[in-house]
Specification:
By secondary structure, the chain is mainly alpha-helical. It has 5 helices and 2 strands, in the order H-E-H-H-E-H-H. The model has no long low-confidence stretch (mean pLDDT 91). It binds a DNA duplex through helix 3.
Length: 100
DNA sequence: GTTCTCACA
DNA sequence: TGTGAGAA
């Protein structure tokens, strides 16, 4: 097992803290309508797609904030999404290697 | 309150 | 790429 307790808790935290779409919109300053559009495009995933209203976890909120910054810098939506996926994958990979 | 869908820029 | 609006 390469993950230590601290890193497991961090990933656990990111995936288990769930927030309603309206609160996500308020926090990120991104319209609900746009969040639903991104979900439709597969950039972000609702916790339970079959639920009556959408909820997102903190990992998704990180994505949302990063994607929006890249869009502001002129990236296409797909380009921004790829870059964010890449960064998160690399960071998570590094986190799993760190020994405290 | 939220979602869907269609139209539109 | 993102929004408006009506219906549900």
């Amino acid at each position: 097992m390469s993950k230590n307790n601290l890193n497991y808790s961090y990933m656990d935290f990111l995936s288990k803290v769930i927030v309603g779409i309206h609160e996500v919109s308020t926090i990120t300053n991104i319209p609900v309508r746009k969040l639903r559009y991104w979900e439709e495009k597969g950039i972000i995933q609702a916790v339970d797609p079959t639920a009556k209203s959408r909820q997102f976890n903190l990992a998704n909120i990180k994505k949302i904030i990063l994607v929006q910054e890249l869009l502001d810098d002129g990236y296409s939506l797909d380009g921004a999404a790829r870059k964010v996926e890449d960064r998160i994958a690399k960071l998570d990979s590094l986190m799993s290697l760190i020994e405290i």
